[in-house]
Design brief:
By secondary structure, the protein is mostly beta strands. The protein has 2 helices and 28 strands. The protein has a single domain, classed as Methylamine Dehydrogenase, Chain H. Strand 26 and strand 27 form a beta hairpin. The radius of gyration is 21 Å and the shape is globular.
Length: 354
């Protein structure tokens, strides 16, 4: 009888463990008991390298130098194209996009862009990759599959005349629109400009707070715009860029959205690490819980794993060399610090590669 009870208890325990893993996998958000797989690619602006972090172990498994060019390389941001099986790295030092294979990270080729390569983004269908050039005041549009340069999109002349420069960029989930933030204006506001990705013409614009970045989700039809110098996150309608809501968030800068879009995270870049990371529910568009401290100052950019169970933040600065790593609590959706990882100098942009 005792042996039978032990056998039944063992079966029950195993069944419960399997159920927990299945439930966790099905949710697509929060902390999961199943192991994460994939890599986080970090662009180390001052080292001219990219660091490849294994998301299961949080160990740097590769450090890869960008190929030689006329000037020292400045890797800025990273974008992954799953359909093309490529990783794109913007090199500001040489006005180019450097392309790697997404499995072994072997160098494939590079493509010229405009002067002042900065933020970049590709749509989920991998039809277009937009690269902002803040010296030329243009965006270079690339086909991630054929690597053809499809267009060089000029920023609005009147906004450029006022000192505006393209900064961040993101594309609609359907790939039909691109949203470009513009910074550098003398007044109290900066701008977000919406472009049609067929005609490459301006569709709409709106004033927002200073130093805006952009994020969005399939879950709704809104655009999330952290504005660092206004200590706010603007929430806009993607259709016409009208303002829906403004949330008070100190130093709001980095923008990280979970894959299913249930939760939006933003960093307080100027807070020195105190209240360094905020969590926002995209259904109610309200803050969740208390802000989380980061172990290091200047929490900059954010990337999440596809499960939404882990979050990575680059901490930028001339001598900085750390990325902080967080587990996302399944129920609260709040981040919990796990560790820090040493990478190259001035870690800047980053992306999850599945």
């Amino acid at each position: 009888m005792i042996k039978l009870r032990k056998l039944l208890l063992t079966i029950l325990t195993l069944s419960l463990g399997i159920l927990l893993i299945q439930t966790s996998n099905a949710s697509g958000e929060g902390y999961h008991r199943a192991k994460d797989r994939g890599s986080i690619v970090i662009a180390n602006r001052a080292s001219g390298t990219i660091s490849i972090i294994d998301v299961n172990s949080d160990i740097v498994r590769q450090t890869i130098a960008l190929p030689d060019a006329a000037n020292p390389s400045q890797p800025m941001y990273v974008t992954h194209s799953p359909r093309a099986r490529r990783v794109f790295v913007g090199d500001r030092g040489n006005n180019r996009i450097v392309i790697f294979d997404d499995q072994d990270f072997d160098f494939e080729t590079s493509i010229p862009a405009g002067n002042g390569v900065f933020h970049m983004w590709s749509d989920p269908t991998d039809n277009q990759l937009w690269v902002n050039n803040d010296i030329d005041n243009t965006a270079t549009v690339i086909d991630p599959i054929t690597l053809e340069v499809l267009a060089t999109v000029a920023m609005p002349e009147d906004l450029v005349a006022l000192g505006g420069k393209p900064h961040d960029v993101i594309l609609n989930p359907n790939g039909r629109s691109a949203f470009v933030s513009m910074v550098g204006f003398a007044g109290e506001n900066d701008y977000v400009v919406k472009y049609d990705t067929d005609s490459f013409s301006e569709v709409a614009r709106t004033e927002v707070g200073k130093d805006p970045h952009v994020s969005l989700t399939r879950r709704n039809k809104l655009l999330y715009v952290p504005t660092q110098n206004n200590n706010a996150v603007y929430i806009l309608k993607r259709k016409d860029l009208s303002v829906v809501k403004i949330l008070d968030v100190p130093g709001a800068h980095g923008a990280g959205m979970t894959r299913r879009g249930k939760t939006f995270y933003t960093t307080n870049i100027s807070g020195g690490g105190v209240n360094g990371l905020y969590t926002i529910d995209t259904k109610t568009n309200t803050l969740i819980g208390d802000a989380v401290n980061t172990p290091l100052p200047t929490p900059h950019n954010i990337a999440l794993t596809s499960r939404g169970s882990k979050l990575y933040i680059t901490h930028s600065g001339a001598t900085a060399d750390q990325v902080s790593v967080y587990r996302i609590d399944k129920r609260s959706r709040l981040p919990e610090l796990i560790t820090t990882v040493t990478v190259g100098l001035n870690p800047f942009g980053l992306a999850f590669i599945r």
